[in-house]
Amino acid sequence: MVVVVRRFAFTLVAALWPLLASAEVSVTDDTGATVALKQPARRIVTLAPHLAETLFAAGAGDRLVGTVDYSDYPDAAKKVPRVGGYSRVDLEAVIALKPDLIIAWYSGNAPANVEKLRGFGFPVYVSQPDRIEDVAREIERIGRLAGTSQAADAAAENFRARLDGLRREYEKKARVRTFYQIWKQPLSTVGGRQIISSVIRLCGGENVFGDLQALAPVVSVEAVVSTDPEAIVASGMGEARPEWLDDWKRWPAITAVARNNLFFVPPELIQRHTPRLLDGAEVLCRHLQSARDRRAK
Q: Is the pLDDT of residue 6 over 80?
């Protein structure tokens, strides 16, 4: 009897699959706009490196027909045609690819370009995950739009499980006052609404500039010195620790310098709103734990 029921269920799903695959899908993006497609997208263009990576995480990498410079993860993303950079999108190149969905980055793409693409009749989903939790939700939404919800939901669930594990491990740890440096000139950090601030909080840290509303505010050396961070974390642009991180040794009175709490986290792990953000979180959490351990020495 069980075998018969299973065969019937399989036959029913097989019969309905063409209808399910072509069914209308609708989601709400991070700006509150509704994005509706008559059927799951098959030709997708992403306008930021992290969006291409998220598309692959959602099981829809084979639907990616165009993306921007520096979309380098996973390796398959490197082979996808480019449509300029996230801050200088080549609209003609996008149009030529005839996408049935464009995924844009709210804080990275020029609003005028996004509106122009909408004006040409392209459905545009705008992404802006500001909290770690938003990454999982983004994977689910993109999976729904691409018709890959099974893979996307599994990836999102795995992300949430890892996040919960880190939260349980560090939520009761003593706070570590942290300065996160994006770049040297201009001296840039992250404000309280930026997703990296969420990572710092996850690890039991406190962003010394968390009260600033700008996503990437420019600050002065004097302002950093006055906050006296216990840890200084830098990312830079590449895989290597930036040399300018050691410039802080000119101010030995800063607690982070006095205790040698000058840390590096690879930017691709912590500055992209993707599942790998938790890889970066694990690195940062270990650094902040080192800062705690050095208090007693």
A: no
What one-character DSSP code corresponds to residue 274?
A: S
Coil, helix or strand at residue 269: helix
Class of domain 173-296: alpha beta
Q: Give the residue extent of every domain in the chain.
A: 23-156, 173-296
> Closest Cα to residue 156, out of 127, 128, 135?
135
ω before 186 within 30° of 0 (cis)? yes
23-156 against 173-296: fold identical: yes
Of all helices (H) and strands (E), which one includes residue 181?
strand 176-181
State the fold for domain 23-156: Rossmann fold (3.40.50)
Contact at 8 Å (CB) between 281 and 265?
no
Contact residues for 109 (Cβ-Cβ < 8 A; gap 6+): 47, 48, 86, 87, 89
Instruction: Output DSSP code: residue 230.
Output: S
> Phi-psi bin for 295: left (phi > 0), alpha (psi -120 to 50), beta?
alpha
DSSP classification of residue 236: -
| Residue (of 296, 239, 282, 235) closest to 262 by Cα position | 235
Q: What is the pLDDT of residues 262-282, one digit of tens each?
A: 999 999 999 999 999 999 999
pLDDT 10s digits, 136-187: 999 999 999 999 999 999 999 999 999 999 999 999 999 999 999 999 999 9
Q: What is the pTM of this model?
A: 0.87
Provide the CA 277 distance to its chain's centre, in angstroms. Answer: 6
Residue type, 63: R
